[in-house]
Amino acid sequence: MMVLAGLTLTACSSKFKTYSGAPVTSIQVHKADRKMYLLNDDKVLMSYDIHLGGVPVGKKHFEGDGKTPEGVYYISEKNPNSTYHLSLRVSYPNKEDRAYAAAAGKPPGGDIMIHGGPPRKANGKPRAVSREDWTAGCIAVTDREIEKIFAMIKPGTPIIILP
User: Fold this and answer.
1) What is the model's pLDDT at position 11?
2) Could you tell me what percent of the chain has a pLDDT over 90?
3) Which tens digits make up the pLDDT trace of 72-103?
């Protein structure tokens, strides 16, 4: 009986959730409102408050600019071993982003993700963040929220990031 209780507790505490609802057909990010919506066609399935790059206004053009991209991308990969609990890679930079950066003689940057909260300290507690927008250009939600999102999203899902 004790073993069964332990297994149940372990299963409940897993960061890997399951989802059996309507499929997510797209993601919309509204940067100005700090909101992300998971959609099935035109129906909102879930909405989340988000944190963005440290310089959130404007379109990302270059590595290190602290901006979150704007435009149409897709989820290219799921990372179960992310430094940020779990993460979903956004396909930035696309061909146009690379061309724009190249014309300026700068790298476009990359590693744009939807991910969980800040990495944890050695004692397991989350690191404190001192401002609303703290990522290096990513889209952040809480660890609990990324667990749900990670279960709902499949690679190839379009993500539209609006100003």
Assistant:
1) 46
2) 74
3) 999 999 999 998 999 999 999 999 999 999 99
Q: In the sheet where 26-30 sits, what is the strand order?
A: 43-49, 35-40, 26-30, 158-162, 71-79, 87-90, 113-115, 139-140
Residue 90 lies in a domain: yes
CATH of the domain at 104: 2.40.440.10
Q: 110-154: per-residue pLDDT in tens?
A: 999 999 987 666 556 655 555 688 888 999 999 999 999 999 999
Tell me if 63 is assigned to some domain: yes
| Sequential DSSP letters for 87-137 | EEEE--S-HHHHHHHHHTTS------EEE-SSPBPTTSPBPP-SSS--BSS
Q: How far apart are CA 126 and CA 114, in angstroms?
A: 17
In a domain, 16, yes or no: no
